[in-house]
Write a structure and sequence with these properties.
The chain has about 200 residues and is α/β, with parallel strands linked by helices. It has seven helices and five strands; from the N terminus they run αβαβαβαββααα.
């Protein structure tokens, strides 16, 4: 993807892939989990692909390890549609004894958690993604750190200080990657639609 903006999660994902066999990226819908994971993945299974969904779900029930065949790390997107993949990945990781094999992404909890029998301890790591920060979206130079402010360090913003109107717009628009290139009115409408649809 040519216009991909680097995320803090990129570095967290790389670190986790060195430490564990599989990484679960969780977070709200549309915050960029799949796009970020795809930057690191060498192969992908989109479990919700309309043309293959039924086949993938049958495979997950009968021969889940087939879904893990492919260049590593392998991204399993919307894994929660087939929660048994969690235990299958845990088993495969234990058998292979390697790190950096799989990336699982999904924005909802599996409907049938009874299909998961193992916690994943020692095999899985987790990353929680949020919408983009202003630094990630390129709308701040990062000179002011929220963490530092909570630690009592007060630092004045440098040249990229925004007006109240600009800040108000950015807060209302949010850090949804898909809204960054839209005209202001369309970006605000997307934010409103997001809330309406999630609430429904």
């Amino acid at each position: 993807m040519n216009d991909y903006k680097n995320r803090i999660a990129d570095y967290l994902l790389e670190e986790q892939l060195e430490a564990v066999g599989a990484v679960l990226i969780q977070g709200p819908k549309w915050c960029g989990k799949t796009t970020t994971a795809a930057q690191c993945a060498n192969s992908v299974v989109y479990m919700d692909d309309p043309a293959r969904k039924d086949i993938y779900l049958k495979m997950a029930e009968t021969a889940p390890l087939i879904l893990f065949e492919g260049a590593k790390p392998r991204l399993i997107d919307e894994w929660q549609l087939a929660p048994q993949l969690w235990d299958a990945a845990r088993f495969d990781i234990s058998q292979k004894g390697e790190n950096g094999l799989y990336i699982f992404t999904g924005s909802s909890v599996p409907a049938d958690e009874s299909k998961i029998t193992h916690s994943g301890v020692g095999r899985f790591g987790k990353i929680t993604m949020r919408p983009m920060s202003l630094w990630e979206s390129g709308e701040s130079n990062g000179s002011v750190s929220l963490a530092s402010m909570f630690d009592g360090e007060m630092k004045a913003a440098t040249a990229d200080a925004k007006t109240i109107e600009e800040l108000s717009f950015l807060i209302c628009r949010g850090g949804w990657p898909g809204s960054l290139t839209l005209k202001p009115k369309a970006a605000l409408l997307q934010a409103r639609n997001y809330v309406d649809i999630v609430a429904d």
